[in-house]
From TrEMBL:
Protein name: Ribosomal protein L15
Record GO terms (molecular function): RNA binding; structural constituent of ribosome
SMART domains to which the protein is assigned, alphabetical: Ribosomal_L15e
A matching Pfam family: Ribosomal_L15e
Comp. bias (Basic residues): 241-258
PANTHER family per the UniProt record, alphabetical: LARGE RIBOSOMAL SUBUNIT PROTEIN EL15 (PTHR11847:SF4), RIBOSOMAL PROTEIN L15 (PTHR11847)
Biased composition (Polar residues): 264-273
């Protein structure tokens, strides 16, 4: 990192506890100097049914001013925590949460998102009409669903195992939750953890019949009938990614509006009468 003579950044991260009376060093050049944080505002992320909390505080020391100032919003600190998934804090949190998620039903409603910063990035707002469901998907591939391994085709298509699915686990999670909650619209989803057997996702859904949604110009587009079961047609974020629509520039026209439609346009000869 680039050092500045005017600013020195300090980090304090404590898991499952409070940052009151927490000592943190203010500068690598002056390791003896410490400050005491007492009853300062922290960025807090609470888990649904346990007492876990993750706190992060970033204080910037400016010699031209007295004391310390906070430079970024609370969710920015949570984002930096989740970027380092091999840290002791996140590894412990994921291990405890994965155990908790395994004890719950496969698809269940969340009281609140497990990752507040990620949920808001994906469109979630803590207001009426929004709901979050959590689901676990068994990891690994799937066998070809044929009886006794008989494909009845050419030898190139005889494979049963080691097949690579065209859809990701996150897409499958959205489809299963959308099938269970058929009266809601799938807005987006995000990863919340995994273990040796399962991957856990949280799905953000919106009630298109709720007045708070229908009267909000920023989200009432999802009330249109064309967005029914949008997760089954590749219209969510992960669906567009798997369709290759995140790519721009060279040869990206071969993917729009879809791979099949673009191929048909290129290989169809149109003649005037």
């Amino acid at each position: 990192e680039r050092s500045s003579p005017m600013l020195s950044v300090s980090f304090c991260v404590s898991a499952l506890g409070s940052t009151d009376n927490c000592l943190l060093s203010t500068s690598a050049r002056d390791p003896q100097e410490t400050i005491r944080l007492e009853r300062w505002v922290t960025a807090e992320s609470k888990v649904t049914s346990s007492t876990e909390s993750v706190f992060a505080v970033v204080a910037v020391r400016d010699p031209s001013r007295r004391g310390f100032i906070f430079t970024m919003g609370a969710y920015k600190y949570l984002e930096e925590l989740w970027r380092k998934k091999q840290s002791d804090v996140i590894r412990f949190v994921l291990r405890v949460r994965s155990w908790e998620y395994r004890q719950l039903p496969v698809i269940h409603k969340c009281q609140r998102p497990s990752r507040n910063d990620k949920a808001r990035k994906m469109g979630y707002r803590r207001k009426q009409g929004y709901v979050v469901y959590r689901i676990r998907i068994r990891r690994g591939g799937r066998k070809r669903p044929v009886q006794k391994g008989c494909v009845y085709g050419k030898p190139v298509n005889q494979g049963i195992r080691k097949l690579k699915a065209a859809r990701t686990h996150r897409e499958v999670a959205e489809e299963r939750v959308g099938r269970k909650c058929s009266n809601l619209r799938v807005l987006n989803s995000y990863w919340v953890g995994q273990d040796a057997s399962y991957k856990f996702f949280e799905i953000i859904l919106v009630d298109p019949a709720h007045k708070a949604i229908r009267r909000d110009p920023r989200i009432n587009w999802i009330c249109s009938g064309k967005h029914k079961h949008r997760e089954n047609r590749g219209l969510t974020s992960i669906g567009k990614k798997s369709r290759g629509l995140r790519r721009k520039g060279n040869k990206s026209t071969n993917r729009r509006p879809s791979v099949r439609s673009a191929w048909k346009n290129r290989n169809t000869q149109k003649l005037w009468r």
